[in-house]
TrEMBL record:
Domain Alpha-type protein kinase: 1-169
PROSITE patterns xrefs: ALPHA_KINASE (PS51158)
Gene3D superfamilies assigned to the protein according to its UniProt record, in alphabetical order: MHCK/EF2 kinase (3.20.200.10), Phosphorylase Kinase, domain 1 (3.30.200.20)
Source taxon at top rank: Eukaryota
Record lineage: Eukaryota, Metazoa, Chordata, Craniata, Vertebrata
Any GO BP annotation: innate immune response
Species of origin: Mustela putorius furo (European domestic ferret)
Protein name (Swiss-Prot/TrEMBL): Alpha-kinase 1
GO CC terms, sorted: cilium
Alphabetized SUPFAM superfamilies for the sequence: Protein kinase-like (PK-like)
Record-linked Pfam families: Alpha_kinase
InterPro entries, per the entry: a-kinase_dom, ALPK1, Kinase-like_dom_sf
């Protein structure tokens, strides 16, 4: 972070990354069952407390360093980069997270490192999750964010969605947009 954040902020970041990892583990199982050779992983995130004696003076979130080109496949509103093959997998993963969570969550803001021309391993970091279970995370746009995902980023299902038998949801524009 460019400026210091409190402990709660770091904990919610790590929790969000662990939630996204849970969804992606289930997504990877479905890919494997369909003999699709791509796998997606989230870089493990950890919180380090800065101590002075027994007093917490601050904290930082850390991840392992990944060598290679960092790519941003999508953001948490309307932007999606279709020039990367990995984006198809990422959008199918977002769609899967929505279906797997019983239409409560969609994982967005896909960014990280891609191997094998986007058909190999995809290492992601710093996910955002739009959830109908609103919380006070400013990047959770709730129903509006889910609407953005299905009506601006993932407008139609792709080959991966079809192979995983994902069904196209009808997501209506929320009243407060």
């Amino acid at each position: 972070y460019k400026e210091q954040k409190g402990l709660w902020h770091h904990f919610t970041d790590v929790e969000r990354q662990m939630t996204a990892q849970h969804y992606v583990t289930e997504f990877n199982k479905r890919l494997h069952e369909q003999k699709i050779p791509t796998q997606i992983f989230y870089i493990p995130s950890t919180i380090l407390l800065i101590l002075e004696g027994k007093t917490i003076k601050g904290c930082i979130s850390v991840e392992p360093y990944i060598l290679g080109e960092f790519v941003k496949l999508s953001n948490n509103t309307k932007v999606v980069k279709t020039e990367y093959k990995a984006t198809e997998y990422g959008l199918a993963y977002g769609h899967f997270s929505y279906e797997y969570s019983n239409h409560k969550d969609v994982v967005v803001d896909l960014q990280g490192w891609v191997t094998g021309n986007g058909k190999g391993l995809i290492y992601l970091t710093d996910p955002q999750i739009h959830s109908v279970d609103q919380n006070d995370v400013t990047t959770n746009f709730g129903k509006k964010g889910i609407f953005y995902f299905f009506n601006h980023q993932h407008v139609k299902c792709n080959e991966i969605c079809h192979r995983l038998s994902l069904t196209r949801p009808s997501v209506e524009k929320p009243n407060n947009s």
